[in-house]
Structures are given as structure tokens and as C-alpha cells.
């Protein structure tokens, strides 16, 4: 009887350890996915700001050129 109980506890410990490992792995995966999404969002924002800035510089230079004529 003692052997059966120890085997049941061992099985329970193994199952619990597996569930904890899976939970930790999924948390790490979600964290990595969020970090990647944030990095992509930041890159898109920087690209947008750069494009707007270049467009504004181009418009300013064209307006200055038109005034100088």
C-alpha cells in the first residue's frame, strides 16, 4: 500500500511539474511575442516620424525656392 501511495504522489508531482513548466513556457512565449510586437510598433513609429519630417523638409525647401524666384 505504501508503494502505491508513493507512486501516486510521484505521478502527481510529475504532472504538477509538467503543468508548471508548460505555464512558464507559455508565459515566456507571450512575453517574447509582446516584446516583438512592441519593437515592431516602435520601428513603424520611427519610420512614420522620419517620413513626415522628410516630407516637411521637402515642402519647406520647395516653398523657399518658390519665394526666391
Tell me the Rg in angstroms. Answer: 30 Å
Order of helices and strands: H
Report helical residue fraction.
over 70%
Specify the number of helices. 1
Spatial separation of the terminal alpha carbons: 102 Å
Shape, principal axes of CA atoms: rod-shaped
What does this structure look like?
The model has no long low-confidence stretch (mean pLDDT 89). The protein is rod-shaped and about 100 Å long. The N and C termini lie far apart (102 Å). The protein has 69 residues and is mainly α.
Task: Break the fold down into its secondary structure elements and pairings.
Layout: H1 2-68
Keywords summarizing the entry:
69 residues, mainly alpha
Summarize the structure.
With 69 residues, the chain is mainly α. It contains one helix and no strands.
Amino acid at each position: 500500500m505504501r508503494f502505491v501511495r508513493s507512486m501516486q504522489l510521484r505521478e502527481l508531482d510529475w504532472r504538477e511539474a509538467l503543468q508548471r513548466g508548460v505555464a512558464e513556457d507559455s508565459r515566456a512565449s507571450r512575453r517574447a511575442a509582446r516584446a516583438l510586437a512592441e519593437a515592431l510598433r516602435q520601428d513603424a513609429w520611427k519610420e512614420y516620424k522620419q517620413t513626415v519630417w522628410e516630407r516637411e523638409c521637402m515642402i519647406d525647401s520647395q516653398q523657399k525656392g518658390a519665394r526666391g524666384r
